[in-house]
Amino acid sequence: MAGDTLKVEDSTWDADVMKASELVMVDFWAVWCGPCQMVAPIVDELAKEYAGKLKVRKLNTDENPEVAGRYQVMSIPTILFFKNGQVVEKLVGARPKRQFKETIDSLLAQHAGTA
Protein backbone atom coordinates (compact mmCIF):
# COMPACT_ATOMS: atom_id res chain seq x y z
CA MET A 1 0.00 0.00 0.00
CA ALA A 2 1.44 3.33 -1.02
CA GLY A 3 2.18 5.68 1.82
CA ASP A 4 2.11 2.98 4.47
CA THR A 5 5.17 2.11 6.45
CA LEU A 6 6.06 -1.48 5.79
CA LYS A 7 8.11 -3.81 7.88
CA VAL A 8 11.36 -4.98 6.32
CA GLU A 9 13.30 -8.02 7.52
CA ASP A 10 16.66 -9.67 6.90
CA SER A 11 14.97 -11.94 4.33
CA THR A 12 13.31 -9.12 2.36
CA TRP A 13 16.08 -6.51 2.75
CA ASP A 14 17.74 -6.87 -0.66
CA ALA A 15 14.52 -6.84 -2.67
CA ASP A 16 12.89 -4.09 -0.61
CA VAL A 17 15.78 -1.71 -0.01
CA MET A 18 18.90 -2.56 -2.00
CA LYS A 19 17.12 -2.98 -5.34
CA ALA A 20 14.77 -0.01 -4.89
CA SER A 21 15.18 2.72 -7.48
CA GLU A 22 13.63 5.43 -5.31
CA LEU A 23 14.97 6.95 -2.12
CA VAL A 24 14.36 4.58 0.82
CA MET A 25 14.16 5.64 4.47
CA VAL A 26 14.67 2.80 6.97
CA ASP A 27 13.82 3.23 10.65
CA PHE A 28 15.92 0.85 12.78
CA TRP A 29 13.99 0.39 16.03
CA ALA A 30 13.08 -2.00 18.86
CA VAL A 31 9.98 -2.48 21.02
CA TRP A 32 11.80 -1.62 24.27
CA CYS A 33 13.28 1.63 22.92
CA GLY A 34 11.51 4.74 24.29
CA PRO A 35 12.91 7.22 21.74
CA CYS A 36 11.92 4.77 18.97
CA GLN A 37 8.31 4.94 20.17
CA MET A 38 8.50 8.76 20.04
CA VAL A 39 9.80 8.70 16.45
CA ALA A 40 7.37 6.02 15.17
CA PRO A 41 4.34 8.32 14.60
CA ILE A 42 6.60 10.86 12.85
CA VAL A 43 7.92 8.14 10.53
CA ASP A 44 4.33 7.07 9.76
CA GLU A 45 3.35 10.67 8.96
CA LEU A 46 6.38 11.09 6.69
CA ALA A 47 5.45 7.89 4.83
CA LYS A 48 2.05 9.37 4.04
CA GLU A 49 3.34 12.86 3.19
CA TYR A 50 6.06 11.59 0.86
CA ALA A 51 4.07 8.75 -0.73
CA GLY A 52 5.25 8.25 -4.29
CA LYS A 53 8.53 10.09 -3.64
CA LEU A 54 10.01 8.12 -0.78
CA LYS A 55 9.79 4.49 0.28
CA VAL A 56 9.60 4.12 4.09
CA ARG A 57 10.47 0.90 5.89
CA LYS A 58 10.89 -0.16 9.54
CA LEU A 59 13.36 -2.78 10.70
CA ASN A 60 13.10 -4.28 14.18
CA THR A 61 16.75 -4.67 15.25
CA ASP A 62 15.97 -7.42 17.77
CA GLU A 63 14.27 -9.57 15.13
CA ASN A 64 16.72 -8.72 12.33
CA PRO A 65 20.24 -8.50 13.77
CA GLU A 66 21.95 -9.34 10.46
CA VAL A 67 20.99 -6.14 8.65
CA ALA A 68 21.43 -3.99 11.77
CA GLY A 69 24.93 -5.43 12.17
CA ARG A 70 25.79 -4.92 8.50
CA TYR A 71 25.22 -1.17 8.89
CA GLN A 72 26.77 -0.99 12.38
CA VAL A 73 23.58 0.27 13.97
CA MET A 74 24.74 0.65 17.58
CA SER A 75 22.07 2.94 18.98
CA ILE A 76 18.45 3.30 18.06
CA PRO A 77 16.48 4.86 16.67
CA THR A 78 18.77 5.09 13.66
CA ILE A 79 17.30 6.26 10.38
CA LEU A 80 19.25 5.34 7.26
CA PHE A 81 18.49 6.71 3.81
CA PHE A 82 19.37 4.55 0.82
CA LYS A 83 19.60 5.40 -2.87
CA ASN A 84 20.55 2.70 -5.38
CA GLY A 85 21.62 0.38 -2.57
CA GLN A 86 23.96 2.91 -0.96
CA VAL A 87 23.58 4.70 2.37
CA VAL A 88 23.31 8.41 1.52
CA GLU A 89 22.38 9.77 4.96
CA LYS A 90 22.25 8.62 8.58
CA LEU A 91 20.30 10.15 11.48
CA VAL A 92 20.80 8.74 14.97
CA GLY A 93 18.44 9.46 17.85
CA ALA A 94 14.99 10.96 18.14
CA ARG A 95 14.53 14.14 16.13
CA PRO A 96 11.72 16.60 15.55
CA LYS A 97 9.69 16.04 12.39
CA ARG A 98 11.08 19.27 10.91
CA GLN A 99 14.62 17.81 10.90
CA PHE A 100 13.46 14.67 9.12
CA LYS A 101 11.64 16.77 6.52
CA GLU A 102 14.71 18.95 5.92
CA THR A 103 16.86 15.86 5.38
CA ILE A 104 14.31 14.19 3.09
CA ASP A 105 13.73 17.35 1.03
CA SER A 106 17.48 17.82 0.63
CA LEU A 107 18.01 14.20 -0.44
CA LEU A 108 15.08 14.28 -2.87
CA ALA A 109 16.47 17.47 -4.41
CA GLN A 110 19.96 15.94 -4.74
CA HIS A 111 18.70 12.75 -6.30
CA ALA A 112 15.98 14.22 -8.50
CA GLY A 113 18.14 13.94 -11.59
CA THR A 114 19.66 10.55 -10.81
CA ALA A 115 16.58 8.31 -10.88
Automatic annotation (TrEMBL):
So where's the catalytic machinery, residue-wise? 33, 36
Write down any Gene Ontology CC term.
Answer: cytosol
Q: Which cysteines are joined by disulfide bonds?
A: 33-36
Q: Does the keyword Membrane apply?
A: no
CDD domains, sorted: TRX_family
Which residue intervals define the domain Thioredoxin in the entry?
1-109
Q: Which Pfam families match?
A: Thioredoxin
Q: Name one GO biological process term.
A: cell redox homeostasis
Checking PROSITE patterns in the record gives: THIOREDOXIN_1, THIOREDOXIN_2
In this chain, the site described as Deprotonates C-terminal active site Cys is at: 27
Where does the entry annotate site (Contributes to redox potential value)?
Answer: 34-35
InterPro entries on file: Thioredoxin, Thioredoxin-like_sf, Thioredoxin_CS, Thioredoxin_domain
A molecular function (GO) held by this record is: protein-disulfide reductase activity
The chain's coiled-coil residues are: none
Q: Which UniProt keywords apply?
A: Disulfide bond, Electron transport, Redox-active center, Transport
What family name appears in the similarity comment?
A: Belongs to the thioredoxin family.
Q: What is this protein called?
A: Thioredoxin
Q: What is the lineage of its organism?
A: Bacteria, Pseudomonadati, Nitrospirota, Nitrospiria, Nitrospirales
